């Protein structure tokens, strides 16, 4: 008979029991850790690509003998892909910005050397014992300034 004061859910035989949730595998946790580091360092470029690659690798390896990957591994895979795309897009954007602004990577390097020398008084020849003019042509050609326009020298 039905008794409203009786607690049906207190009876262990009558309760629905689901199997205990298994903890995520160490590989899945490594994938999550690498994915988080990759998304946090996505503005640094190559560091994020390395951690995102490791996150993808660990997420793929975490499946083991299971038929489906774990939830943590799925999220780590997705986050790693997002971090890799963001990082690659920023690297490509930076490269094209430098090319557009300075005309070439060599002009950017010349401008960088002149900035270091003007602001800090550091000369590569004095510091490292190398002649930048011989290797990069900075002594034979005038310094580039962004105000002069792309590809032009003063």
**Largest sheet geometry:** none
Number of distinct beta strands? 0
Low-confidence stretches: none
Question: Distance between the terminal alpha carbons, to the nearest Å?
Answer: 100 Å
Q: What percent of the residues sit in helical stretches (DSSP H or I)?
A: 55-70%
Beta-strand portion reads: under 5%
Structure classification: mainly alpha
Q: Count of helices?
A: 6
Overview of the structural elements:
It is a single chain. The protein is built from 6 helices and no strands. By secondary structure, it is an all-alpha fold. The radius of gyration is 29 Å and the shape is elongated. The termini are far apart. The relative contact order is 0.10.
Question: What is the element layout, followed by pairings?
Answer:
Layout: H1 26-40, H2 46-61, H3 71-102, H4 105-120, H5 124-128, H6 132-136
Helix pairs in contact: 1-2, 1-3, 2-3
Descriptive key words:
154 residues, mainly alpha
Write a brief caption for the model.
With 154 residues, this protein is mostly helical. It has helices spanning 26-40, 46-61, 71-102, 105-120, 124-128, 132-136.
């Amino acid at each position: 008979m039905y008794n409203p004061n009786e607690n049906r859910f207190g009876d262990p035989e009558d309760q629905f029991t689901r199997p205990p949730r298994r903890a995520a595998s160490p590989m899945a946790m490594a994938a999550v850790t690498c994915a988080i580091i990759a998304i946090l360092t996505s503005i640094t470029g190559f560091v994020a690509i390395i951690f995102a690659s490791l996150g993808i690798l660990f997420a793929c390896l975490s499946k083991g003998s299971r038929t489906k990957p774990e939830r943590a591994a799925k999220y780590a895979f997705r986050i790693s892909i997002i971090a890799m795309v963001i990082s690659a897009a920023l690297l490509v954007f930076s490269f094209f910005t430098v090319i557009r602004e300075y005309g070439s990577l060599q002009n950017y390097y010349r401008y960088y050397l002149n900035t270091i020398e003007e602001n800090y008084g550091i000369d590569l020849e004095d510091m490292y014992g190398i002649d930048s003019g011989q290797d990069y042509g900075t002594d034979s050609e005038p310094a580039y300034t962004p105000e002069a326009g792309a590809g032009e020298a003063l």
